[in-house]
Amino acid sequence: MNSIEPIQSLIKDELLAFEDKFRDAVKSRVSLLDRIMQYIIRRKGKQIRPMFVFLSARLFGAVDESTYRAAALVELLHTATLVHDDVVDEAYERRGFFSINALWKNKIAVLVGDYLLSKGLLLSLNNNDFEVLKILSTAVEKMSEGELLQIEKSRSLNLSEEIYFEIIRNKTASLLASACGAGAWTTTRDSRISEQMRKFGEKAGLAFQIKDDLFDYGSEAIGKPTGNDIKEKKLTLPLIYTLNNTTVARKKELIYIIKNKNKDRPMVQYVIDEVTKSGGIEYASQKMFELRDEAITILNEFENNEIRNGLEQLVRFTTDRKY
Q1: What is the pLDDT of residues 66-100, one digit of tens each?
Q2: What is the mean pLDDT of the chain?
Q3: What would the DSSP string read from start to end of 250-316?
């Protein structure tokens, strides 16, 4: 599935109301901060995570104010981590727009990330959404651990598949998992159902991240491979598979290139070609589809209706998307 519009139409009213509520949630009396918040709102992406919150809630009942607050908290935390990530990665562009640190420098970007985090915490605390805050705070802890584990392991470039999955489970999947768990909690107040939906979101999140890893190797829709992960010395699943399933000499050669020639375009292209030849792309794609199917299996334990179908389509969108 390559279009998100049919899924969005299922929760059209919720998404429209969410726009206003999110805008209110980030308002500030400090004019510089308010200007930056408006910039963030204007360049928001597909809002996949709030969609997972609303669909996970609607699967079990009618959305209420606590669901909107859960969706706002997820989006606030997600945006805060992106702002901080751009500082850590020294990235000056995101989704074709200048990053906050590119426009306002690192000091302001770090403070903006902190502001977004505090806004999210207060939104929950002021409304006694303690369970939702607990679910989402766990995700923030895991995201920080995942980021630091990746930095630690990328120095040696000796990453096992097990460590890779630990990194992406923490870094990416934990927030999507918490979005689903929190959404379900707001309409069920049932920790067992919330935990099942959290597991569903984790599987979907792992598949989502592997799809992002595969984008680095290009496709017919994207055009030329980007090789950005290689340039940043990030070990992703296609590359890990290749390094663990090649000769000792070839492994040494590839690691040397990633460590020392990662800015040399022909050398990066050579690594991409080796990953493709070794079956790394196929292997990662197979893992991604396995995780997608595991997520759908969990979902199929619940009542079959248009919302459940919408959630399944959203999971399929994350693995079939072309961008």
Answers
A1: 999 999 999 988 887 877 677 777 767 766 677 77
A2: 87
A3: HHHHHHHHHHHSTT-HHHHHHHHHHHHHHTHHHHHHHHHHHHHHHHHHHHTTS--SHHHHHHHHHHH
Residue 252 lies in a domain: no
**Residues 158, 159, 162: CA angle, nearest 5 degrees:** 150
Name every residue whose Cβ is closer than 8 Å to that of residue 34 and which is 6 or more positions away in sequence: 27, 28
Q: Dig out the tokens for 231 from the structure.
A: 């340039």
* 305 vs 200: CA distance, rounded Å: 17
CB-neighbour burial class of residue 143 (10 A; exposed 0-12, middle 13-18, buried 19+): buried
What's the full length of the chain, in residues? 323
Is residue 245 a part of any domain in this protein?
no
Write down the pLDDT at residue 221.
Answer: 45
Q: Where do we find the tokens 């890990």?
A: 240
Strand, coil or helix: 224:
coil
DSSP string over 140-188: HHHHHHHHHHHHHHHTTT---HHHHHHHHIIIIIHHHHHHHHHHHHHHH
Domain that holds residue 78: 5-212+299-320
Residue 126's region, left for phi above 0, alpha for psi from -120 to 50, else beta, is alpha
Domain annotation covers residue 230: no
Q: How far is the C-alpha of 290 from the C-alpha of 180, rounded, in Å?
A: 20
Q: Is residue 248 part of a domain?
A: no
- Dihedral in degrees, nearest 10, Cα atoms 306, 308, 312, 317: 60
Total domain count, the chain: 1
Which CATH number fits the domain that encloses residue 41?
Answer: 1.10.600.10
Contact (Cβ atoms closer than 8 angstroms) between residue 244 and residue 161: yes
Residue 286 sits at the vertex; the CA angle it makes with 52 and 243, to the nearest 5 degrees, is: 115
Q: How far apart are CA 313 and CA 6, in angstroms?
A: 9
